[in-house]
Design brief:
The structure holds three protein chains of three kinds.
Chain A lengths: L1 H28 L16 H12 L4 H13 L13 H36 L5 H14 L2 H10 L4 H25 L2 H8 L4 H39 L4 H11 L2 H29 L7
Helix pairs in contact in A: 1-3, 1-11, 4-7, 4-9, 5-7, 6-7, 6-9, 7-9, 8-9, 9-10, 9-11, 10-11
Chain B lengths: L2 H15 L8 E6 L14 H10 L4 E3 L6 E3 L2 E6 L5 E6 L13 H11 L7 H6 L7 E6 L2 E5 L7 H4 L21 E7 L3 E6 L18 E6 L3 H9 L5 E2 L4 H9 L3 E8 L3 E6 L9 H8 L1 H10 L2 H8 L4 E3 L23 H10 L3 E3 L2 E3 L7 E7 L3 H15 L4 E7 L1 H11 L4 E6 L10 H4 L18 H15 L3 H18 L2 E14 L2 E2 L18 E2 L3
Parallel strand pairs in B: 1-10, 17-18, 17-19
Antiparallel strand pairs in B: 2-3, 4-5, 5-7, 6-7, 8-9, 9-10, 11-20, 12-20, 13-19, 13-20, 14-20, 15-16, 21-22
Helix pairs in contact in B: 9-11, 15-16
Chain C lengths: L2 H18 L1 H4 L31 H37 L2 H15 L3 H10 L6 H15 L2 H15 L2 H8 L4 H12 L1 H22 L13 H5 L5 H6 L5 H18 L6
Helix pairs in contact in C: 1-3, 1-13, 3-4, 3-6, 3-7, 3-10, 4-7, 6-10, 8-9, 10-13
The chains are: A mainly alpha, B alpha+beta, C mainly alpha.
Chain lengths: 289, 536, 268
């Protein structure tokens, strides 16, 4: 057990470090990397312009940069942002809580609303209800996250609601489709034929069948929430990591981008690992045999 | 209640009715980006310059309304006849925000820091007009002389940007001489400046300035959000209103929206004339042809650019000097008129022929080229599309390629892999000397062919000579004569097509008093010490 | 065929037909500028008004439908196929395949692919034809957007591995490739369909945002994405709700596609 966990942790750390390096390579190779925006300032003399360009050329390649960054990271130093001129640690300390709060609230709200709607379509057999829920989900599904963000800005709603609006249709339509499929399974049909009540069928048979896949969606939706946070924070002007990521990307701020890539990777790996572990630990897949 | 208490209450009542009641309050506005630096004299972006303007004390200030020089921390000054030095008599009894006295040593210290090449201050480069050091020396506790290696044209105006730092204060650069001092900062969210309790300036009645208690600057990148919050009263002013929002804001209650007039800025288009540019040789030949450039200029309808893109809040491009710059603009020059027929004739004269709807050069190549501009700037993207349509009418196919700013910068400064570029120039100074490094052919900021070892054309050599002549001339009239000639050459050769000078569009709450919008930056709060908020 | 499906197909056919016949149906060419009628309100001459360059919005919406209706679903299909293949192999085969698959998808989800797109733009000639730029853009989107879907497909495929019908087919001696293609893949259709529907609107607006990088639909060619960018002006939307027309059309088309593709799948 301990060996397995250690191997898993080592695997995650390896992937994590690899992501940071690949991210650095991508940024380093991007057009405009290393260009100092100040070069257009007409106040610079020729000598200063040459010196600025010399600074550009003196920037380390991705391998050297990453090794240097790891050495500093081991000492607790995350480097300094080129574009904002501040320690990356300070920037993340100020902005990460904002994004985490919005994403967590958005995820909780999105999952709650999505699952409630999916379960409701199972239990409420009113004509048109299924159509209504599908229509609402369809509208939210069809509108890109940036458009949803605009609508919520106009309503003066918090950022988390916009994130929730991105998550809800995915959870709802996925859960609904899974439930539809599960209802057609032999053992479920058998239970229904034997007169087992709807609620018991749902909680004892349907939920156990769709559980692993919902857990997989849970892991992915964490990444989706953070991905959606970027355009939403940019449009809503929320000073979180999403907005910081966009500013860093536009400025080709390598130290900042490497750190943000590692944060996103960490969240992705953690969320997906937890959902994988929960799936296998529940033994739910075995129940289908 | 005792007599003392009654007197206090009565005094409070009287004070509440007096003009002093308008003092105080927190001014709120937004900046699109966070300041990159709060270190004095290192500001290269608008946000940093804003904070420096509000907190920094300077020796001489340019009055943004009258455009004349005004004494600030220097009671008087005298420039040497050869223009190589300037001596200041400093105001006495002035203290930094932390109480440290202000002396000549602080000016010396400021210049020493600023001129340190390690600090990379662009402001310092404005003073470096020749080989040799720029030095400040204290000739007494209140007298300081700054010496330059060569004469600096319009040197007094440059001191408007030099914020004096304390040599003695333990707070170093955080101790300031300006009306406000930085009190709180949350990265990406806001900054709060509080009134400097030791600010030296008083109004005509002897009341301490500034009138405002504080300024809250929020970071708001989304202009639509900023406009929405301004309409809701969450901000007291907007400095750079988009033309699309201006008319809407003018109709909003409680808001004064003002079109101040043409700014000093310009939107321009230029062709890549770098010899080693990785573009086809036949296209290089087009771009090197004066007749080609002039024809393109004639084919562009600048009135439509002003009317459609800027909703009438812009004037057609004149040249390197905006019509708002009354002294320095060449009054003989008029905006290029829209003349597509003349454009066709001009192109025909140099061998271009119409082939149905297409124009072809003498070798049969269809005339097609691209224009890059910075994506996200809606005005420039729209201008590019209008120009695309204008050129289509004379058979030229223009491909509009918006790029993110860094990709564009790489193309125009590093690999020169572009054909034409549509961008803007911001002038913060009226004096054309500020454009020296744009017009000198050897400069890296020379747009169409930077960093030339020797001038590629006779007219660029002539411009070099004239710019250096105006920089070393003794009097403004002589300088103007040289610079008028530069403007005429630029109009004749059109290496840069001047499209529009956009107007300064500002808005402020009717609660804000003593506002006098100006075309010079900062447009609304240049006289921040005198601004008042009603109801405070 | 249910009546709902019939209506949905009818609506889709009409919209598709209109879009394909844009040259005949649109009142004006999409690039024509009426510079004296900028931001004109709806009228007989301009049913949806004009945009900020005086171009007829209805014409641009019709032409934009042609671009977006063809390319966004194509990109979504590409990404779904890729995700399906990848997820199926990783989830069904398990073991090292699953570990490797998860590692690749997690890395894919974490990396800033924006910079790859910038590199592609840098490599493309500035005078690339709008059609070439468009196809390359959507192909890139299709190739980069598969990771999220792949994980979900892998999870679903894992569940199918030990299902009764697969065990039965295996007992009958069917080879693995046949099990994958004939048994596992069809049962993943609902998952793949759900991912397809999720991908289409994402690609539509991603295409518009790529305009920021110099990719995507080049002016003056319209697309739903570029039309949707007008919604960023909140106050303009309030004043002229017809600006929401592209968003409404997007919802209608996607809803109809969803209903039409659901077929006979009903929850009884």
């Amino acid at each position: 057990m301990i060996v397995r966990i250690s191997r898993r942790v080592a695997w995650i750390v390896t992937l994590w470090l690899l992501a940071g390096f690949l991210g650095a390579v991508l940024v380093w190779m991007a057009p405009g990397f290393g260009i100092d925006e100040r070069v257009l300032d007409p106040r610079w003399t020729k000598d200063s312009s040459v010196a600025l360009r010399g600074d550009e050329q003196a920037r380390l390649g991705p391998v050297s940069f990453y090794i240097d960054w790891l050495e500093h990271f081991a000492r607790g130093d995350l480097g300094e942002s080129n574009s904002l001129g501040r320690p990356v640690a300070d920037l993340l300390r100020e902005r990460l809580p904002i994004t985490l709060r919005s994403a967590a609230a958005g995820l909780a709200l999105g999952w709650a609303a999505g699952l409630i709607l999916a379960v409701a379509t199972y239990f409420i057999k009113l004509p048109g209800f299924d159509w209504l829920t599908a229509a609402v989900a369809g509208i939210l599904l069809s509108l890109p996250s940036a458009v949803i963000a605009v609508l919520f800005v106009m309503l003066d709603a918090p950022v988390s609601w916009a994130i929730a609006a991105v998550i809800v249709p995915q959870v709802f339509s996925y859960a609904r489709n899974l439930c539809n499929r599960a209802m057609c399974r032999t053992h479920v049909l058998m239970a229904a034929a034997k007169g087992v009540g709807s609620a018991r069928i749902f909680f004892w048979h349907v939920l156990s069948t769709i559980g692993p896949q919902l857990l997989a969606l849970a892991g992915v939706s964490v990444t989706l929430a953070f991905t959606a946070a970027i355009p939403i924070e940019v449009i809503c002007d929320s000073p979180g990591v999403g907005q910081l990521a966009w500013l860093a990307a536009m400025a080709r701020d390598l130290p900042l981008l490497v750190n943000i890539t590692l944060i996103v990777t960490g969240i992705t790996l953690t969320a997906n690992s937890i959902s994988d572990w929960a799936t296998s630990a529940s033994g739910i897949e075995g129940a289908t045999r | 209640m005792s007599w003392t208490s009654r007197a206090v209450v009565l005094m409070a009542l009287v004070l509440s009715l007096s003009p002093f009641a308008s003092a105080g309050g927190e001014l709120r506005f937004a900046l699109p980006f966070e300041p990159k630096t709060l270190a004095p004299n290192l500001a290269t972006d608008d946000a940093s310059e804003t904070v420096q303007y509000l907190t920094g004390g300077v020796l001489i200030r340019v009055n943004r309304k009258t455009q004349q020089l005004r004494s600030e921390l220097a009671e008087s000054w005298k420039t040497a006849p050869d223009g190589k030095s300037i001596t200041f008599q400093l105001r006495q009894g002035v203290h930094f925000s932390d109480g440290t006295p202000f002396t000549a040593q602080d000016v010396v210290h400021t210049f020493r820091l600023m001129m340190d090449p390690e600090r990379q201050s662009p402001l310092a480069d404005s003073f470096r007009t020749g080989d040799g050091q720029v030095q400040a020396t204290a000739d007494g506790p209140s007298t300081v002389t700054v010496r330059f290696p060569a004469a600096v044209a319009g040197v007094e105006r440059l001191f408007d940007g030099v914020a004096i730092e304390s040599a003695q204060s333990p707070l170093k650069g955080k101790a300031v001489l300006g009306p406000f001092v930085l009190a709180e900062r949350r990265a990406g969210a806001f900054l709060v400046l509080k009134r400097n309790p030791n600010y030296w300036k008083k109004d005509n009645d002897g009341n301490a300035l500034p009138y405002l208690d504080a300024i809250r600057i929020e970071i708001q990148s989304n202009p639509e959000l900023e406009s929405m919050r301004f309409r809701r009263g969450q901000f007291h002013l907007m400095s750079m209103i988009e033309p699309s929002q201006f008319d809407r804001l003018a109709r909003a209650p409680g808001i004064e929206a003002v079109d101040v007039g043409a700014s000093l800025d310009m939107e321009i288009l230029w062709f890549n004339q770098v010899p080693k540019a990785p573009i086809e040789e036949y296209k290089k030949a087009w771009f090197h042809s004066r007749e080609f450039r002039r024809a393109i200029s004639e084919a562009i309808n600048r009135d439509d650019l002003c009317r459609v893109v800027y909703r009438g809040h812009a004037v057609p491009g004149l040249g390197p000097i905006s019509p708002a710059n009354r002294f320095w603009r060449d009054a003989k020059l008029k905006p290029q008129a829209y003349a597509p027929e003349s454009a066709r004739s001009r192109l025909a004269r140099v061998g271009f022929k119409s082939d149905g709807d297409l124009l072809r050069d003498s070798a049969g190549h269809p005339v097609e080229f691209s224009v890059i501009t910075n994506a996200g700037n809606r005005a420039r993207e729209k201008m590019a599309v209008l120009i695309q349509e204008d050129l289509r009418k004379i058979g030229i196919k223009l491909n509009v390629v918006p790029l993110d700013f860094h990709s564009l910068l790489e193309r125009i400064t590093r690999n020169f892999n572009y054909e034409s570029c549509l961008l803007g120039f911001s002038n913060v100074d009226l004096d054309p000397n500020a454009q020296m490094n744009v017009w000198l052919s050897s400069a890296h900021q020379h747009p169409w062919n930077p960093a030339q070892e020797r001038p590629a054309t006779p007219w660029e050599a002539e411009i070099d000579r004239l710019m250096l002549a105006q920089a070393s001339a003794n009097n403004p009239e002589e300088r103007k004569k040289h610079f008028d000639r530069v403007q005429e050459i630029v109009r004749r050769e059109e290496p840069v097509l001047y499209l529009v000078h956009k107007n300064v569009l500002v808005g402020y709450s009717k609660k804000l008093g003593n506002v006098e919008p100006s075309i010079l930056r900062p447009h609304v709060y240049w006289n921040v010490e005198y601004l008042t908020l009603d109801g405070q | 065929m249910t009546w709902k499906r019939g209506i949905a197909l009818g609506v889709l056919a009409s919209i598709f037909g209109l879009a394909m016949c844009a040259n005949l149906v649109a009142p004006y060419p999409y690039e024509k500028q009426f510079r004296d009628s900028v931001l004109a309100p709806p009228s007989a001459a301009f049913p949806l008004g004009t945009d900020d360059l005086g171009r007829d919005r209805l014409s641009r919406l019709i032409y934009g439908t042609r671009v977006s209706l063809l390319l966004a679903p194509a990109a979504a299909l590409l990404t779904t196929l890729f995700a399906g293949a990848f997820g199926l192999l990783a989830g069904y085969l398990g073991g090292a395949w699953e570990w490797g698959g998860k590692a690749v998808t997690d890395l894919f989800l974490s990396l800033p692919w924006l910079f790859l797109l910038l590199m592609v733009r840098a490599m493309l000639p500035l005078n690339a034809s709008p059609e070439a730029s468009l196809v390359i853009t959507f192909a890139l989107l299709g190739l980069l957007g598969w990771a999220v879907s792949a994980r979900l497909v892998a999870s679903a495929a894992r569940g199918l591995k030990d299902s009764e019908f697969v065990l039965q087919a295996r007992a009958l001696g069917q080879p693995s490739w046949r099990l994958l293609i004939r048994h596992a893949l069809p049962n993943l259709r609902p998952v793949l369909a759900a991912q397809f529907w999720l991908a289409v609107p994402v690609f539509l607006l991603t295409e518009a945002n790529l305009g920021f990088l110099g990719l995507g639909v080049a002016e003056p060619l319209p697309s739903w994405g570029s039309l949707l960018r007008e919604l960023e002006d909140f106050a303009a939307v309030r004043e002229n709700p017809l600006l929401l027309a592209p968003a409404v059309l997007l919802v209608i088309v996607l809803s109809c596609l969803h209903i039409a593709a659901r077929g006979k799948e009903q929850w009884s």
